[in-house]
Amino acid sequence: PPSQFLAALEAEASAQLPQFAPQSVSLTAWAFCKLGDAPGASRLLARVGEVFPGGFEGWPPQALGSLAFGMGSLGGLGGPVPLLAAVDAELARTLSSLGGREDATALANALWGFGRCGFRPVALLGAAEALGEAPPSGPGLEGLLEHLTPSNVSYAALGLAELGESLTSSALARALCRRAAQVAGDLGTESLVPALWALAALGAHLNPMEGRYSVLERALAAWWNSAARSDPAALSPEDLQMLSEVKTLLTAEASD
Description:
With 256 residues, the protein is mostly helical. 66% of the residues lie in helices and 0% in strands. The mean pLDDT is 85.
């Protein structure tokens, strides 16, 4: 039976975990989480904590992102707080050195995972504020986020929105929204409604000053028009719920 096969895989993975490379550890944990085997995934995550009690210093960002994404895939169960905190600490420590598409994807995956787990990555958010949106000495957050694909933007925005971040309080959210405006025309149907909801939840509004829309507002308006024309039968129940909330969020008065 499949359950016996998964149990055998779990036992073997747990036994060999100390010999695994970081990426193998994270992908194994991610796979068990994605399979929906919550008890097995929870036991394997507990084993990861036993094998790496000191955290994940030196782990590549891709491994950290995969691990956080996997824990987020468990839904309401989430992941062990010590593991989430260790991922947060290492991403924060290395944030200023990240760059390129793979690192940007890892960051988006981690943010989505944090959001789904309801874990606020205080260290990472603080590091993002310290890094700044575009410091004179380097590209800052803009340089990293420019490598986000449209789907990455959607994942990252969903994570930040679920954590209660906002454009007024988060440099990371502001930089992400600017990247969203840049890739607006390339956003796929599967990412459209979640991204639209997430950006609206972050505080992006349709309140033009002097009758003129900003670049982000024009992108939001275009996304709303596309989403509103979607066939309801083609949307998931979750997407329909998000879409019902979007109009109110988009036209809400921006907070001071």
